[in-house]
């Protein structure tokens, strides 16, 4: 299924959709069915970029839904652009890789298209790490 959403081609040849769906919801009690309905409506509307984060506590829900979509043949993994983020408490170098692996497992994916630092802090790294 092709997308109606325009993309921007990066210098490395990867195309990123210019519009995506953010998936932050009620963090204390996410409504699974509501999130899946919003995700399905976005897919049906042509969205192919989705933003999540470990802090949203919904990567496992998105992973279930992506797995369903792929099994249905509605979209392929290569059609979807997934962004997720590492939370500041995990910014220490030894924790970033663990955070990526955890997100991959929860999202049920082999790769993440874009992995960001959630809320980077404009301070010297050493002083920030001491704060953590």
From TrEMBL:
SUPFAM superfamilies: NAD(P)-linked oxidoreductase (SSF51430). GO terms for molecular function: oxidoreductase activity. InterPro entries: AKR, Aldo/ket_reductase_CS, NAD(P)_OxRdtase_dom_sf, NADP_OxRdtase_dom. It comes from the Eukaryota. Residues 19-122 form the NADP-dependent oxidoreductase domain. PANTHER family: ALDO/KETO REDUCTASE (PTHR11732). This is NADP-dependent oxidoreductase domain-containing protein. The lineage of its organism: Eukaryota, Metazoa, Ecdysozoa, Nematoda, Chromadorea.
């Amino acid at each position: 299924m092709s997308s109606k959403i325009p993309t921007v081609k990066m210098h490395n040849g990867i195309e990123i959709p210019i519009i995506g769906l953010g998936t932050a919801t009620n963090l204390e009690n996410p409504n699974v069915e509501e999130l899946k309905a919003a995700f399905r409506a976005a897919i049906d509307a042509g969205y192919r970029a989705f933003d999540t984060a470990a802090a949203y506590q919904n990567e496992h829900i998105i992973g279930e839904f992506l797995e369903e979509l792929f099994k249905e043949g509605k979209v392929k993994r290569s059609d979807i652009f997934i962004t997720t983020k590492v939370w500041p408490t995990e910014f220490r170098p030894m924790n970033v890789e663990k955070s990526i692996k955890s997100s991959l497992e929860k999202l049920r994916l082999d790769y993440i298209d874009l992995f960001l630092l959630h809320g980077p802090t404009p301070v010297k790294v050493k002083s920030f790490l001491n704060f953590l």
